[in-house]
Amino acid sequence: MHLNPYGEDAVNLAADLVNRRPGSAGELADRCRAAGLVLERPVTQQDLDRAHAVLDAWEEVVDAPDDHRRAELVNRMLAQSAAHPRLTDHAGSGWHLHYRDDRQPLGAVLSSLISVGTALHLAGRGMHRLRRCAVTECTTIFADTSRTGRQRYCSQRCANRDAVRRHRAGRALSRPASPAGAAGP
Ligand SMILES: [Zn+2]
Ligand SMILES: [Zn+2]
């Protein structure tokens, strides 16, 4: 994969995998391929296990209470996965940087891709740009790559849902409840 300078593809892949966890090695392979990863080796159960461990760690990064804790958790992921950077043309589609050794199994590839991509995303766009949807019952995680950095919902559907709810709550507040309730100072 050509990791773009802001890590956008990597954080989007992580969010996709964490929101709907792959159930088999085959599904993991298909979804990584669909995201643009070039798979150099057969994908095994070990890769799936490693992927789930990486996604567990990533979810903790998303739910970190503040920037320092978030940075600490990302640094821990980086320490467990990243090798020295190297230029490669392994897919024959252009020279790009890898932050891992050559010919790694998919689990290891995801570990370095997601940790380095997340570090680039947070450093490049802002430490707050990973979060869960603002709708209380929706736990979907997304990477905020918007221009303003103020995306609150995982989807247009959730944005609409919340708008309807706020509208109803507003009407309930402005309606006089009872003569007693309306009495003010
Ligand atoms: Zn590559
Ligand atoms: Zn949502």
What does this structure look like?
- This protein has helices spanning 8-19, 25-34, 45-62, 67-81, 106-125, 156-174, 179-182; strands at residues 86-88, 96-98, 130-132, 141-143.
- Helices cover 53% and strands 6% of the residues.
- The radius of gyration is 21 Å and the shape is elongated.
- With 185 residues, the protein is mainly alpha-helical.
- β3 and β4 form a beta hairpin.
- The strands form 2 sheets. It has a two-stranded antiparallel ribbon with strand order 1-2.
- It has a domain at 8-132: Jann2411-like fold, CATH 1.10.3300.
- The site of one zinc ion (ZN) has 8 residues, from loops.
- It comes from Planobispora rosea.
- Residues 165-185 are annotated as: Disordered.
- This is Zinc finger CGNR domain-containing protein.
- Residues 171-185 have a biased composition (Low complexity).
- Residues 129-169 form the Zinc finger CGNR domain.
Residue windows where pLDDT falls under 50 for at least 5 positions: 178-185
Distance between termini?
Answer: 66 Å
Q: Nearest-angstrom radius of gyration?
A: 21 Å
Give me the oligomer status. single chain
The CATH topology annotation of the domain at 8-132 reads as Jann2411-like fold
Largest sheet: 2 strands, antiparallel
CATH class of the domain at 8-132: Mainly Alpha
Would you identify the CATH H-level superfamily of the domain at 8-132? Jann2411-like domain
Structural class: mainly alpha
The proportion of residues forming helix, as a percent range, comes to 40-55%
Strand order of the largest sheet: 1-2
CATH architecture of the domain at 8-132: Orthogonal Bundle
Overall number of strands: 4
Strand coverage percent: 5-15%
The geometry reads as elongated
What is the helix/strand order?
Answer: HHHHEEHEEHH
Bound small-molecule species: zinc ion
Mean pLDDT: 90
Region (Disordered): 165-185
Organism: Planobispora rosea
Biased composition (Low complexity): 171-185
Protein name: Zinc finger CGNR domain-containing protein
